[in-house]
Amino acid sequence: MILVAGGTGRLGRTLVPMLVDAGHRVRVMARGDSQPFPGTAADGVELLRGDLASEEDCRKAVAGCTAAVFAASGFGIKDSDPRTVDRDGAVRLVHAAADAGVEHVVMMSMHGAAAEGPIEFLRCKAAAEGAVRSSGMAWTIIRIGVLLEQRLEIMTAPLESKGKVMVFGSGRAPVTYTSVRDAAALIVRVVSDPALRNRVIEWGSVTASANEVAEAVLARAAHGSVQRIPAAAERVLSVVARPFSPFLARIAGAGIWEESGGTAFQWAPGRAEFPDIPVTGLQEVLTT
Ligand SMILES: NC(=O)c1ccc[n+]([C@@H]2O[C@H](COP(=O)([O-])OP(=O)(O)OC[C@H]3O[C@@H](n4cnc5c(N)ncnc54)[C@H](OP(=O)(O)O)[C@@H]3O)[C@@H](O)[C@H]2O)c1
Q1: Which CATH number is 19's domain given?
Q2: To test the ligand 1 pocket, which listed residue (13, 60, 73, 202) has its Cβ within 8 A of the most ligand atoms?
Q3: DSSP 3-state of 70
Q4: Residue 273, phi then psi, degrees to nearest 5
Q5: Which of 115, 156, 243, 248 is most deeply packed, by most CB within 10 A?
Q6: What is the rounded distance in angstroms from the CA atom of residue 152 to the CA atom of residue 285?
């Protein structure tokens, strides 16, 4: 049995059926708060409504599992945050997994994760990485870029209603995106290949500026124009929004980091080791 914590999220929803197709039994853990929780379980899937903030729920989640994938996040949830989920929730789950005799943990992380990272999300991911490395279990850390499908959702949210595609900052900085499909395909490989244990894998799908992404979206939509949120506005929001909307403040803070070019990385060397996992490009995601 493989636990997918955050199995109802953007990545989790794609990953779970792929794991089942690969012959695994899967337990999905989520609260059913930010994402709909399935009413009935598909074949090969067990559903567990649980909160990573609860030690008891973490213990139930890992019971009887040989592997656990941490695919939960508080970054994009208005009434949550990375400290609660990506750091403390991850550490709690890792400890519960080690106590329960789970053999292998896959920790979803991000390029740039570091204790002194420029945004809190990266510092929280570094803490989660530290927890798996010192857990005594086998581990694999997968550092992805910005999830491409999520970014497209955000950029195109006002396209139908207002004919606008949102671009944050100058839109000129290179950003490395990882498609959900590519991230899920790597996880499926990692859980079944012992040679991929105790390794950090950096995993991207495409590097493009926000202006290039917007251009591709507009070309496909054949209508609309760019609405730009200036970098100066992001800088102000990242500070002044903190007391009333930490969510908005962290989105703006991430935008500033992106503007620095820090999200971009060389992903081709990491992919070269897995030539049979197809690279899902921007056009492919836009057309499906
Ligand atoms: N999105 C990105 O650009 C990006 C970049 C780098 C790394 N990552 C990492 O990749 C993984 C997948 O991200 P994603 O974008 O697919 O996430 P997502 O769509 O935001 O989904 C988050 C999932 O976590 C669950 N969750 C949140 N709080 C929870 C809690 N306290 N207890 C149990 N479950 C909880 C959510 O369900 P409920 O709220 O209903 O519980 C949902 O299933 C995450 O680990 C994320 O940090 C993402």
Answers
A1: 3.40.50.720
A2: 73
A3: strand
A4: -75, -20
A5: 156
A6: 9
Structural domain containing residue 91: 2-144+180-204+266-280
- Per-residue pLDDT, 93: 98
Which atom of ligand 1 lies nearest, measured to the CA of 89?
Answer: 31
* CA–CA distance, 8 with 30 (Å, rounded to integer): 7
- Ligand 1 centroid from CA 107, angstroms: 12
pLDDT at 124: 98
Q: State the 10-residue block means of pLDDT for the chain, 288 residues long.
A: 98 98 98 97 97 98 98 95 98 98 98 97 98 98 97 94 94 97 98 97 97 96 94 94 93 93 95 96 93
Distance from the CA of 21 to the center of ligand 1, in angstroms?
Answer: 22
What's residue 288's pLDDT? 85
Atom index in ligand 1 nearest the CA of residue 144 equals 6
Confirm whether 140 is domain-assigned: yes
Residue 174 lies in a domain: no
End-to-end CA distance of the chain: 31
For residue 195, is it within any domain? yes
Per the structure, the count of domains in the chain is 1
What is the atom index within ligand 1 of the atom nearest the CA of 76?
Answer: 20
